[in-house]
Amino acid sequence: MTPPIKQKNLFGQNFDDNESDSDNDRRNDQRQYMKRAQRRVESAEKDLATEDTSVYSYDEVYDQISSSNKSRRTGSSQKSSRYIEGLRNAKKERELEKLRRIEDKIKQSQQKVITDESLRSKEAFVTESYKKYKDKLNKKVAEMNEEVRTVPEITFERTLLDMYGTEKENSKGENKNSHEPPLVPKAAQSCALGGGLNVRKKPSLLNAKLVKFLVSRITPEELEAYKQRYLLRKRS
């Protein structure tokens, strides 16, 4: 049996030849595409080989940053704790210094108030009101000494003793609610003059006020202490 004869198209071309040519072109295109893809892959591999792979280690970098921040926070907390501790120590030192000053003031007040040797071993509590009273008393005593300088025979201790004795005598017979002025000490009422004359001198207003002030303010213990000092000086 003879094979069939292939018919040609109108342009004198064979259909089978056209199909074979198109297949060849398609294969060539595929080969070219594969080659280009292969070249791109090779170039990408070369680039990856030359690049630093550490830029993609995100976890490691994050861990390093976290550890550095933690160490920084720890250091700052240690600094702040040292600063706070220093402030506390400074406050304690100031409190101790304040207590020392208060103790020194109390000791000085005790030395001023306690004059009798028998009372040296006892403790005394001095208030601010008492300190103010002592200052006021010292001013009055200074004014009295300034005035008494004109009368040689009158001394402060003698005035206190006379006043103390007069006050004791008056307290026995007088009423406590009476408003009569206190008696003026004898030593303050007279002064020695030349020629054998002894003239009574009226007490000045300052002496009267001072005696009234001393009678109302000075305690019996203080008067007793003045008396003891006066007697010691007289004996010596």
TrEMBL record:
Residues 1-48, 64-87, 166-186 are annotated as: Disordered. InterPro entries: Nsrp1, NSRP1_N. The lineage of its organism: Eukaryota, Fungi, Dikarya, Ascomycota, Saccharomycotina. It comes from the Eukaryota. Keywords: Coiled coil. Residues 23-32, 39-48, 166-179 have a biased composition (Basic and acidic residues). The keyword Nucleus does not apply. Residues 89-147 form a coiled coil. The keyword Coiled coil applies. Residues 66-77 have a biased composition (Low complexity). GO terms for biological process: regulation of alternative mRNA splicing, via spliceosome. This is Nuclear speckle splicing regulatory protein 1 N-terminal domain-containing protein.
